Amino acid sequence: MTADLVGRLGQIVGPAGLISDPGGMAGHVTDWRNAYSGTAAAVVRPGDTGEVAAVVALCRDAGVAVVPQGGNTGLCGGAVPDSSGRQVVLSLTRMRRIRDLDVANQTITVEAGAVLQSVQEAAAAAGRLFPLSLGAEGSCTIGGNLATNAGGTAVLRYGTMRDLTLGLEVVLPDGRIWNGLRGLRKDNTGYDLKQLFIGAEGTLGVITAAVLKLFPAVRSRATAWAALPGPQGAVDLIGVLREIAGDRLTGFEIMSRQSVEFVLRHSSGARDPFGDQHPWYALVELSDTLPHAGLDEVIEAALGEAFDRGAVRDAVIASGSAQATALWALREGISEAQNHEGPSLKHDVAVPVSRIPAFVERTDRALREAVPGIRIVTYGHVGDGNLHYNLSKPVGSDDEEFLVRAEALARLVYDSTHAFHGSISAEHGLGHSKREIIADYADSHGLDLMRGLKQLFDPRGLMNPGKVLPGL
């Protein structure tokens, strides 16, 4: 890339929108885990959709690839440039406006660079709820959430970003702007184009704004921590909860004992809710729009029924918001706590809920046969079949010796996932890390259709190349 082109990019976005020195670009060319890194010719930070369109059009004419980026909190390298030094990182972080909040229509229109937590807060200030919730909500952006079809802890009741999105504004790879910002729940006028861009990780265009669904504010909650004999207990417990609590069941998380041990060891103030150790745990949350909905009684009844069926060994119901927060901290602290135990191999998979117990048994056995002493950190949103199947090295073993086996161990997890008719990426996307391996598990005709869409939208292959699709 010539200095002239960088200068022309600067003319579009202004001094505040152009970063071209290596020090300033450092946070944009390496992901937050330092797992993926590259180099870039420049980082551009447009201030509005018109500037995004102008940047994309200029890069298209120059034959320069564009890497869209939000909060750069992904886990698969989907927002990191390659090592060529010729790509432009297009950061949406200056585009943070809440464009509209329509209480009567139950929608909020936000720009792609808006931080998830700020959208939650804007909804709350209007007496409404935007329900997407995940560990990185203080730094991840709505554009990134859309690009990866984020799920989080409330999918069970509210769905993924696909379910939460009514309309999009997108800059196409040739610089044109598609305005699909309609807050309609019924719109049967042809193809639902917005769904092509959700989960596409910026390979078909740059999402610049979205119309999102809002819900009535939650006014009462009940949170419980349950000890389980095994994953089958989780499947049985969630069945009981669905029977008794219905759609008031908002969150249901499962954690192995190994996961909780890491949090207890490394998270300040973390305490085990029970005196005895148990092999598995579940974190359950009910919610209601009524201020006095009697949820503690509902969750107590469900836990009692599950105990009678042998699905639950012990349980505690949070006595207030402070205790509920402490219970959620045990779940939310797992990923960070695992980092203190050396390198971790992270896998984000999904299988049918009914198959989780058999899947865990088979996969654990294969991993322990391959690496005796391996520490398996399994946790996730069991209500939708999504498990984070993370691996830590055996105690006292060598880091590099463990990392060199990463691909083989991933194959064990993914082969088992495929055997149970699951997905090797539930909510983190494919990015760079899984783009080649997906060819071994996805339907070949489906991949051909996706390649055809990529060719249609981005015939020059300049929009986030090297991500999602194998061979492109």
From TrEMBL:
<protein>
    <submittedName>
        <fullName>FAD-binding oxidoreductase</fullName>
    </submittedName>
</protein>
<keyword id="KW-0274">FAD</keyword>
<dbReference type="InterPro" id="IPR016166">
    <property type="entry name" value="FAD-bd_PCMH"/>
</dbReference>
<dbReference type="InterPro" id="IPR016167">
    <property type="entry name" value="FAD-bd_PCMH_sub1"/>
</dbReference>
<dbReference type="InterPro" id="IPR004113">
    <property type="entry name" value="FAD-bd_oxidored_4_C"/>
</dbReference>
<dbReference type="InterPro" id="IPR006094">
    <property type="entry name" value="Oxid_FAD_bind_N"/>
</dbReference>
<dbReference type="InterPro" id="IPR036318">
    <property type="entry name" value="FAD-bd_PCMH-like_sf"/>
</dbReference>
<feature type="domain" description="FAD-binding PCMH-type">
    <location>
        <begin position="36"/>
        <end position="217"/>
    </location>
</feature>
<keyword id="KW-0285">Flavoprotein</keyword>
<dbReference type="Pfam" id="PF01565">
    <property type="entry name" value="FAD_binding_4"/>
</dbReference>
<dbReference type="InterPro" id="IPR016169">
    <property type="entry name" value="FAD-bd_PCMH_sub2"/>
</dbReference>
<dbReference type="InterPro" id="IPR016164">
    <property type="entry name" value="FAD-linked_Oxase-like_C"/>
</dbReference>
<comment type="similarity">
    <text>Belongs to the FAD-binding oxidoreductase/transferase type 4 family.</text>
</comment>
<dbReference type="InterPro" id="IPR051264">
    <property type="entry name" value="FAD-oxidored/transferase_4"/>
</dbReference>
<dbReference type="InterPro" id="IPR016171">
    <property type="entry name" value="Vanillyl_alc_oxidase_C-sub2"/>
</dbReference>
<keyword id="KW-0560">Oxidoreductase</keyword>
<dbReference type="Pfam" id="PF02913">
    <property type="entry name" value="FAD-oxidase_C"/>
</dbReference>
